[in-house]
Design goal:
- Helices cover 65% and strands 8% of the residues.
- It has 120 residues and is mainly alpha-helical.
- The chain is elongated.
- The two termini are 30 Å apart.
Length: 120
């Protein structure tokens, strides 16, 4: 599973699955009708698309993840940095923080992340 991208609504729907898995497709139909005003066929189409992207599987009407939410968003973030900043993380951080002041807590969290990730 490489270069998987989701639209905004697909991402919201995937989050619903991750929050509730394992979940039946019939329960997803109810949730999607309430949240997105989708018909049953639309929900099943989106489930099928997410399964084709190898994020989820639908076995006998029960939808479960093949990739965790954390792993998916980690992969998506890396893909974004690679495509938008040629993989240069400092350029991403500079762009992300431009015009924004970091709280002392945010700065400390970032320092800790860097310390933990730094090659020794």
């Amino acid at each position: 599973m490489q270069n998987v991208t989701l639209g905004v609504v697909e991402s919201q729907f995937a989050d619903i699955i991750w929050e509730n898995e394992p979940i039946s497709s019939s329960e997803l139909v109810k949730i999607a009708e309430e949240k997105f005003s989708w018909k049953r066929t639309t929900t099943h189409t989106v489930i099928k698309r997410l399964c084709e992207k190898e994020l989820f599987e639908n076995t006998k009407g029960i939808v479960t993840s093949l990739v965790s939410r954390d792993d998916f968003y980690s992969m998506s973030s890396k893909q974004f940095v690679n495509e938008s900043f040629n993989g240069h993380l400092p350029a991403f951080i500079a762009a992300f923080t431009k015009g924004k002041r970091l709280s002392p807590e945010e700065a400390e969290d970032i320092r800790k992340l860097i310390d933990d990730a730094e090659e020794k």
